[in-house]
Write a structure and sequence with these properties.
mainly alpha, 332 residues, 15 helices, Ribonucleotide Reductase, subunit A, globular, disordered C terminus
Length: 332
């Protein structure tokens, strides 16, 4: 539509999904963090803890509270390592393959040049994020003498793969991958916000997270727009499948990663690690309360998923609809 003709009402209509993608693609050279230069590892404040105790799944457990200060500090460094390794898993095993499918024109609704260009840009961003957090972990492992600490694969990836295994059709597996990518990109900026402005952690850690988050703030609207274009170009059968799958990665993302924590704690010699983690398991493996899933609910409403019984059932089963109306009103 021309900016010089048409009514005032028309000029103030929101851009179409395709127009929005074009704007986001054009903005990449200006905002991409890969173009900003590397962070200086010398900024690490070694007297500060690497992570926030409030983000530990066992922060109030008596076994953690009575641990020696040196052990608590080591636990917090492990938390930072695991935080970054989860980022590696998300970027390399979820987002990158999803973008690759788009680049190769395998995804309905995203076979145009702009969609493929912006998926390519996103892959460059994610490759930089891998470098960013891998470097951050290398610095931490060396400075905290934690080079040998093993960190298992995160639950989000393991659950996505398990979901792949129960679906034999290639289109089903692709939609599972895309659904997990969409959910990850909707949530990850909030996930990163927790540390990006936290002055109690080392400056290097904080700026590493902040640089990553600046890209992810652009990725969220990209993947929300991808979701709209994909859904509009699916068959009814495919739309029903995506509706049933989309809410599942929310629970996977909300995992407390207790397997990861048990492996790390046992490795660093934390006393009674099995008891500590066992007590956490008895309470639950996920914490949805820490996630603001209102934007995913809003996306499902825009797509029309929640106007169907299947959509209501799918989102209710994952515990996302009981307070959805309150969340949407609060955060929209």
């Amino acid at each position: 539509m021309s900016q010089h003709y048409g009514s005032n009402v028309a000029r103030h209509q929101p851009p179409s999904p395709s127009d929005l993608l074009r704007r986001l693609a054009a903005d990449w050279p200006r905002r991409a963090q890969v173009k900003r230069g590397e962070l200086d590892a010398a900024m690490a404040d070694e007297d500060k803890d690497d992570f926030l105790a409030d983000l530990l799944p066992f922060k109030d457990h008596p076994l953690y509270l009575k641990a020696p200060a040196a052990m608590k500090r080591k636990v917090l460094s492990c938390g930072w390592l695991a935080y970054n390794e989860k980022t590696v898993d998300i970027e390399a095993k979820i987002i990158h393959p999803a973008c690759q499918s788009i680049v190769h024109a395998h995804v309905p609704g995203l076979r145009d040049g702009t969609s493929r260009e912006i998926a390519s840009q996103t892959m460059v961003d994610e490759a930089y994020h891998l470098l960013l957090v891998s470097r951050a972990n290398a610095v931490t492992r060396e400075r905290r003498k934690l080079a040998s600490v093993p960190i298992p694969e995160c639950n989000l990836v393991k659950q996505m793969r398990a979901c792949h295994e129960v679906h034999s059709e290639s289109w089903q597996r692709m939609l599972v991958q895309l659904a997990t990518a969409i959910v990850s990109e909707v949530f990850i900026s909030d996930y990163l916000r927790l540390l990006s402005s936290e002055n109690s952690i080392p400056t290097f850690n904080r700026l590493t997270v902040a640089a990553h988050r600046r890209d992810e703030l652009a990725h969220e609207p990209i993947f929300r727009t991808f979701a709209k274009l994909i859904y509009a170009n699916l068959s009814t059968k495919e739309q029903m499948f995506l509706t049933s799958v989309l809410p599942r990665p929310v629970r996977w993302f909300a995992s407390l990663e207790l397997d990861v924590w048990q492996t790390m704690l046992e490795h660093i010699g934390f006393a009674d690690a099995a008891t500590l983690i066992g007590d956490c398991r008895s309470i639950g493996e996920q914490n949805l309360a820490k996630l603001d899933y209102s934007r995913l609910i809003a996306l499902a409403q825009e797509l029309g998923m929640l106007q169907t019984q299947l959509g209501v059932d799918s989102f209710s089963t994952e515990g996302l609809l009981s307070d959805a109306r309150a969340q949407h009103g609060r955060f929209s």
